[in-house]
Queue: 2 jobs
Job 1
Amino acid sequence: MQRPSQLDKFEALLRGHVDALYRTALRSTGDPGLAEDLVQEACLRAYRSLLTGVEPDNFRAWMFRILTNLCIDHARWQTGTATNHTAAQEVEDMPETANGPAQTYENARLGDDLTAAVAALPQDLQLVIQLVLVEGMSYREAADCMTCPEGTIRSRLNRARGLLRDSLSAHAPDNGDRIVPFPKRGDHGK
Amino acid sequence: MSCKFLSDDTLTAWVDGALGTEKARDVACHVATCSACHDAAEALRRENDMLRTALGQVRAPTHLWAQISARLATEPVPVTRLASLRARLARGPRPLMAAALAASVLGGVVVFQQSSRSTTTDTALQVLAVETVQDYMTFRISQRALDVASDDPTDTLLWLGARVGGTLPDMTENVLDYRLIGGRLCWLMGQRLGALTYAQGEDQITVYVMPAQDGDVDGFMDKVEDEKARHTEGPIRSTVWVEGGLLIAVVSDLPEAEKNRFATALGESLRAPELEI
């Protein structure tokens, strides 16, 4: 029996996003096996929706929204066992960090330090970083995925950056391994 | 923040590409002339690059796609009500009845009722309702794109079927030399109406399909040709009949003979074995 062309088209649309979907699920869960399961489930749900006539305007954002909802639902289900989940409002209420890029990122070793620092962030902030900075989504797309206003994406992103700078500056060894320091903004242009 | 002209938030949004075109242009002009903002923007970009590099390297395991594909392949495709319609048609001729007949005018569809079983229906029509539909000859009249354009009839029928309650028959990809190019949704008599457009070169024929009224569903015409209603309004000609619980209207500005040839072939195709989808 010939395969339904609907499936072929769906697979063609989907295939280019699987790595990004998996990265996002892995970022959210920290568990490779669970990330695979969530991506598979997201793909199935999306396909079922398409078969019932749903037609997303933005396929990528739609796929990521299904996936992030699954990730968030799973995290809620796991409440009490997750170690890095902080309610979004708690994060919103955190004080602004005093550090800027000049004081922090240059101290980070690319790779492990940064990855560990991101992994220590609350899930909502990790997802925002993943969607916007890693997967290249616009604020609007990310807001669509996470079902929140664009302004929330912006504030979470700022908060995530601030927390990362704080975290990296607190743990960075002052041993000469620094990447070229960023100029401070206030030193120029006056 | 040392620059009094630009906030950190705005600069960050600019680096992230989150500003509108006009605002982004203003910020770019400022950054080009302010070394503090320029350096801060460069720092943010490096920060973003570091994150992208550190977090963007992960690839999905190679087996994941195979697993996804396997699971999708076993997902059942929802079936419309076509099978039951086919079964009803296969049971053979049913008693004739006064059928709802329709004719089309520019910008609207007029539904008539046949007052007798006369085959000369043009002069024996009783108006049931006149309602405006959004369009019919979609390309020619409205110059609007189809709601769904596909050379695969399964796609078109799935798309329309999901919106008109799965009441579309299995329309064939080709009727004579006309090819199904897509479909469009309309409203008529409070019901969703699926319009299918067939084309042969510049010639187009639109087929409206909608559930017949309740009183018409139990009986339908066993001889399509005898019970078709025909109506002409200006350059637009319509041929309408009820079949399988569906009211079908073939509408075109093509010559009457050509339109009727299409309608006859369409009627025959509706009785053909169900397509495998």
Job 2
Amino acid sequence: MVESLDQIFVTLNHLLTGFAPEALRPAVSAIISIAGIIGVFASLFAVTTVFERKGLGRIQNRYGPNRVGPFGFFQPAADGIKALIKEDLVPRAADKVVHFLAPLMVVIPAFLVYTVLPIGRNMVLADYDAGVLFFFAIGAATELSVFMAGWSSHNKYSLLGAMRAIAQMISYEIPLILSSVTVIMIVGSLSTSKIVEAQAGYHSFGLPNWFVFTPWGLVGFLLFMIAATAETNRSPFDLPEGESEIIAGYYIEYSGFKFALFFLGEYMGMFAISGLGITLFLGGWHAPLALLEFVPSYMWFFAKLLVIVFIFIWIRGTLPRLRMDQLMNFAWKFMLPMALINIVSAAVWHFMLPGWQRWVVGAAVAAVSYVLLGLGLMEGKKLEKRRYRFAE
Amino acid sequence: MNIFFAIIAAVTIAAAVAAMSLRNLVHCALALAVAFAGLAAAYLELGAQFVGFTQILVYVGAVAILVVFAILLTRGSETSPHSVLSAGWLSGILVAVAVLAVLVYAIAKSFVLQNAVPAQPTVTVKQIGEALMTKFVLPLEVVGLLLTAALIGAVIIALKEEGKK
Amino acid sequence: MNQIATQLNPLAGYLILSAFIFAIGLAGALTRRSAIIVLIGIELMLNAANLNFIAFWRFSEHPEALTGIMFAIFSIGVAAAEAAVGLALIIAIYRHYKSANMDDVNSLKG
């Protein structure tokens, strides 16, 4: 019973594919899975927009949207209708073809990366041998579309926003990939389903075998999540699209449905990279406790995804925006050395015998490097207690 | 010679021609990115998954952006009053056509084409990694050194000189 | 023509595609004025050679030697380094000559 509930979508897929002729079976099966993924994640996007606005509102001591539907939960429908019926303005001097293609080129890679995420047991769309590499390659293709959006609007501010966004994305791509290299090194494979399988089982004291519960895994997970926040241009790294600074950065000149597509692409990217973080560090679709294994595997994946999305919203409402030079300093002078030291720490962990010694070594390496690199970042800055001056 | 190869070949050749003949440099760079993507699809069709994904990551994700940044830093997006073609373009076209003719002749007359088509080889990333670390470790280290030297050199060349002029 | 078409195996298709891309890159590198287009043409030529290597690897008798794949991987790395240095040079030349056209860089002429 538990087994069948866990595999219900897989059996449904097989059932529906059975109706198709023999030659078309792989294609039909893929199309059904794709439709499922798009449907689920697009509705998750709609729900997240409401949660974000209400969550931010509550953090800022106000109600979020609360007019449309009970407690404002039909707001996405209103937003969708508004986006669809707004007039589509294209600046006269804009490059029409590139201006039209840019939103598509942001959304298509954002959806394409879901093929390698294992959403449940046996529920990967395409189990590539180099799955994680596929994810990062398609993520890198998003940068070019950001440039297309910024340049085609023929607007200095949107070009400036696009340049900053590309510089930020390129800088944070390296800590992102290096922190996932530790997991790949320990597991020995780039395939996402194998990485999830390697995190099965539980320690003797009940803690699951996830990589986040090791010193290098915790550091790697934090680095991965910070780099993920920067890759998807979320606050506090949202200078390229800062609402109070450069209005909307590289998508100033977009209105209506194209703006909604950019929005969709950004949130899809956020879900996808959180999904990869869950796969690499948080054990994918595994349950956290042995006695909770009756809950289906996809429920655990989405529960972890919702927790991470909540943390994203929380951080957005709490931390102020980073300035461009602070952002770049942080990436190159703190995160990159930390990620490299983390790789060494993971290798040392792998070769030491299991026991309390390797925990101490791992924690010591992480703490010492954090303190030294932090001191290096604060070099030359005179940080002191804020002095208030009033007009007397 | 199936339908996928025909589509990939058509897209790649169209993008390459567009990259070489468009007037606006940024359009050329974007067409180049499409050509890279088409070639990555060709690698996937041939079964070299790792090379295909690396092609997208390195070429589309980095080299295309480098080209675009260089175009913007050298004001290439403004249309220049000069003609697009350099002096001596006719001999250039003739040389390219001659090279194409020689290559196609060599391919058509080659004995390699008469061989039987072997089965699709399966190569895992693990095999590539092991080969890189045992048989090809020297080229790997040399490429690492080369990339470091090249990027440091590129930064120094492109650096603005302080108060020289 | 039909006889040739039925005799061509897929390897010929990939080799001819690679030859076309190489010729297009060469034509662009030799005929255009802007130095950046020349660099784009050079990148296309390198890519065409990579395609050649992978095609020969796929249709070879000993694909487990991985020679074609290794060469292509190193070629991608070297091409990225060369693109970076080439573009830095173009930027430095632009700063000096105020133009990215190759015909204008003629101080040593005559």
